[in-house]
């Protein structure tokens, strides 16, 4: 984790920003929850446990800064709330999401199910796909009962 924090600090420094203690706390929460899709409010709640002086506005501003500098990316699952994941957009291409309509559980699907479709789109339409996003809506095993 320390290595990633140093890399992010260098990335921000190159753009004339600092990795302040508050930003580092937010980054640490993102790294500790890499397997989760956190809303800004989720991040805020987790950061408050470690650093009670960090405000919600700081969390929002930091998440936007991290988005702008390709440190994290956001996903919208159709419920009007952005969710955030650590990782730049190069990490994003190869996983998709299954979203339970009842409980809101989000499952990551790591297989790249659309590679063949991308090739066909290129072949048929001469269109180069840079990225894609697949969201599958339905019911998880617990909710389908």
UniProtKB/TrEMBL annotation:
Species per Swiss-Prot/TrEMBL record: Desulforamulus hydrothermalis Lam5 = DSM 18033
Binding-site list for Zn(2+): 100, 103, 140, 143
Free-text cofactor note: Binds 1 Mn(2+) or Fe(2+) ion per subunit.
Residues that hold Fe cation according to the record: 94, 115, 132
Name under which the protein is recorded: Ferric uptake regulation protein
One biological process term in Gene Ontology: negative regulation of DNA-templated transcription
Gene Ontology molecular functions: DNA-binding transcription factor activity; transcription cis-regulatory region binding; zinc ion binding
Gene coding for it: fur
Entry's family note: Belongs to the Fur family.
């Amino acid at each position: 984790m320390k290595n990633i924090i140093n890399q992010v600090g260098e990335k921000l420094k190159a753009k004339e920003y600092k990795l302040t203690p508050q930003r580092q706390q937010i980054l640490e929460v993102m790294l500790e929850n890499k397997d989760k899709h956190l809303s800004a409010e989720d991040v805020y709640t987790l950061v408050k446990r470690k650093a009670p002086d960090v405000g919600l506005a700081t969390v929002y501003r930091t998440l936007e800064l991290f988005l702008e500098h390709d440190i994290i990316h956001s996903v919208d699952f159709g419920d009007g709330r952005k969710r955030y994941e650590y990782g730049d957009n190069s990490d994003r291409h190869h996983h998709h999401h299954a979203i339970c309509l009842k409980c809101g559980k989000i499952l990551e699907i790591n297989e790249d199910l659309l590679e063949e479709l991308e090739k066909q789109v290129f072949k048929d339409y001469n269109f180069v796909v840079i990225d894609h996003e697949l969201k599958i809506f339905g019911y998880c095993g617990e909710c389908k009962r």
